[in-house]
Amino acid sequence: MFLPEFEYFAPETLEEALGLLERYGEKAKILAGGTDLLVMMKDKLLKPEVLIDISKLIELQGIQYVPEQGLTLGAATKIDEVQHSLSIQKNWRALAQAAGELGSAQVRSMATLGGNSCHASPAAETPPALVALGAKVSLACPGGEREILLENFILGNRKTALQGGEILTRFFLPEPSPRSASVYLYHALRGAMEIDMLNVAVYLALAPDLRSCQEVRIALGAVSPVPLRAEKSEVILTGSKMENSVIEAAGRLASAQASPISDLRATAQHRREVVEVLVRRALTQAYEVARAGKEVKG
Amino acid sequence: MKKLITLNINGQDFDLAVSPRDLLVDVIRKKVGLTGTKKGCGQGDCGACTVLMDGHPVLSCITLAVASQGKKIQTIEGLSEGEKLHPIQESFVEQGAVQCGYCTPGMILSAKALLDRNPDPSEEEIKQGIAGNLCRCTGYKKIVKAISAAAEKLGGKEEERVR
User: Fold this and answer.
1) Among residues A4, A171, A205, B51, which is most buried (max CB within 10 A)?
2) How far is A246 from chain B (nearest CA, A)?
3) In B, which residues are within 8 Å of A31 by CB distance?
């Protein structure tokens, strides 16, 4: 299997990369890890005339934690760096869990966090975790930069809010509440190299009584073209005691809100049933971890 | 149009003329002549083409050769010291973890990347480490055993050095 012909650029600064993107417009594609793009080009699904390799851009690298504020991740951060980051494992655990489930060790050392969101596959691992954690993305263009919520960035199957000439540069995750936890769960047909049939990410912050929910975000993956916020579940949870009856109701509401399709991995009906189970389990786990509080968060 | 690039493979620099579309696996096999790296699915699923790049396992069938400049690339040929096999290779032979052999180079390099990061992996961690390498002969059991035996050998070696 061969790649079609294209011209290759490896700019060294963001400014240079934006200049190239402005010059070549629609003819160009951004090359990050290549694990989706090059496979699609081999399959002749995409035929860009120009590839702009962003792996040399220092502006897109690195994980930086600012206490009291949150975490900034360069868009070119490799998935395995996210998976193994102690800071992410501790404070943004759902993201480390999602990163650890993406592809294989090889794919994780090549693929980037930015690429996983820009590719905008409905079954992607990291976007639901990022949405549940309240992630924002920075988009740079020759004139400047804008910041939007990730949930407003992913617009549909392979569709994003990126406009011509824009490059996704950074993710920002707000500092989690001290009485909070996040959990990522998935369901798939086999143990490795699979595409999730379904995934669920939950961020739960407890009120000072450690029994009721102060804030919650639930994101469902692979049951809609975009990571879906289970808003109805969030509404009944917020302010309620985290009792089984409430958690069960939240699961049912999430299942009702999901709009899955039937495909080779599962029927829509099966996905709906699994959503309910995973939401319930994720909330229960998040509640246990959040309630254990400081000991667990170290 | 061809570009002139330099690739550092197994510690040696190779000056090569490549087209941007040339994949690392093809350049390693056809231009450099190191055929230990195998080409399987061509889509990044089977892991036969795994090489190490700055110590990380990457799929050379979905990596551009032009994008591989400035990195330290290691292929299976760079693992042994002359005739002396690397402890992971030794363990694969001793445990009978090689049958047809096609997956072996990629499997061994994935194992090396794992053991470099995690010198004492659990069985589950070994399975995770080679989850991106398909073997259609062995059923994996002997491969997992070989990697675990190699971890012991490498750990033992380290202790000797410390003493």
Assistant:
1) B51
2) 35
3) 64, 67
